[in-house]
Design goal:
By secondary structure, the chain is of the alpha+beta class. It folds into 2 domains: 29 residues; 89 residues, no CATH class. The longest helix is centred in the first third of the chain and has 16 residues. The strands form 2 sheets. A 3-stranded antiparallel sheet has the order 2-1-3, covered by helices on one side. The chain has a 3-stranded antiparallel sheet with strand order 5-4-6, covered by helices on one side. It is 38% helix and 32% strand. The chain has 4 helices and 6 strands, in the order ααββαβββαβ.
């Protein structure tokens, strides 16, 4: 037997509205910060003229990930070209251009980076986080 709309008990609707009110009362920045604390971070740093590359993975903060990638890159003018948490990033490069892209998997990030960079590019670095 099918239930009619007026057969639905109001308790479920009240609970759903209460849950929605609680979730909407938490500021988006606080939710993002909590999400960020519970995930690990990675980064890729690059300096085009020297070809220097550095990367980091599974760091506790975005800042730690960037600092480690820059340290590994080793050139004073290296720049962070990709940051990631809960996913992957890849850097494709050739002599005159580069592309850093994100993806849900290493393969997706690499494919996107190569597609944006061009036929002569190759993958220079990748990182994935847990």
């Amino acid at each position: 037997m099918d239930r009619r709309r007026d057969d639905v008990k109001p308790g479920g609707a009240v609970a759903a509205l209460l849950a929605l009110a609680v979730l909407s009362s938490v500021p988006a920045a606080a939710r993002e910060e909590a999400h960020s604390r519970n995930s690990l971070h990675g980064a890729i740093a690059y300096h085009g003229q020297s070809g220097s590359v550095g990367w980091s993975t599974d760091r506790k903060s975005s800042r730690d990930a960037k600092v480690e990638a820059l340290r590994q890159c080793g050139h004073e003018k290296c720049e962070v070209v990709a940051e990631v948490n809960r996913g992957c990033a890849a850097l494709a490069r050739e002599a005159k251009k580069h592309s850093a892209q994100k993806g849900a998997s290493r393969q997706e990030a690499e494919a996107k980076a190569l597609r944006h960079c061009g036929d002569k590019c190759e993958i220079a670095a990748w990182t994935c986080t847990r």
